Amino acid sequence: MRILLLILLTVSTAHAQDSTIAYNRRYVIKIAPLSLIDTDATVSLGLEISVGSHTSFQTELGYGTNKLPILGSDYRAMKAGEIWRVRNEFRRYTGRYRTNRSRNIQIKVMPPLGNYWAVELMGKQINVIDKEYQNSSGSTGFQVDVRKSRFVIGSHLKIGRQFALHGVDKKPGRVLFDVYLGAGIRYTNVMDYSGYAAGHLPDVFFKQNRFDAGSKVWPSLTAGLKIGFSL
After folding, report:
1. What are the beta bridge partners of residue 50?
2. Is 40 helix (H, G, I), strand (E, B) or coil?
3. CB burial class (10 A; 0-12, 13-18, 19+) of residue 164?
4. 3 state DSSP class of 212
5. Which of 157, 152, 159, 158 is nearest to 218 (CA)?
6. What's residue 106's pLDDT?
7. pTM of the model
8. Which residue blocks in 17-45 are alpha helix, DSSP H?
9. Angstrom distance (rounded) from CA 231 to CA 174
10. What integer is the mean pLDDT of 120-146?
11. Please, which pLDDT band fits residue 213 given cuts at 50, 70 and 90?
12. Could you give the CA distance from residue 216 to residue 220 in angstroms, rounded to a whole number?
């Protein structure tokens, strides 16, 4: 009887043991397709590097001009413009990849696959030449070109999941999908290089927009999708 109970306990324990997916790829090159439809659209390229058994570091760099946004944007309406964007984040993976308690399935995996949380630091600089109407003589009005820069610095706490397409052998392939969302805060500062103090452009009439000189602190939300290829 004791032998039978021992056999049953051994079988039950073995059935309930976690299985781990081996994915021995340390580097992931990524693109961010949704950045092309952003208000401040950029072509972005990123790299994720696994730096521990549960951690990784990711960096992303993007560049675009004011002619790149596909959707409507006040940035596109500028006479000229360019944008630089950088994102750096530290990730910690939970090790969970698939869990089904009813079927006693608990599949674990190491980075860069699975659920994760991350701390992100981001920066963005937009340089534009804006067109403004000036009438300093009190008679005939004319347009002047005003060079401005909009700086953005922010931080987000993010949660996400990175998963792979499986091949015919049921093993994770090289193509990865990274989905995430997060919340945080950002600081914006617009510099006006026209030589006038902020809010004191003489006889210049323009509507309020995000390129008006000044600084603000905003709550910030972020969400996105990246497509990666592991090396």
Report:
1. 56
2. coil
3. buried
4. coil
5. 152
6. 58
7. 0.78
8. none
9. 7
10. 77
11. confident
12. 12
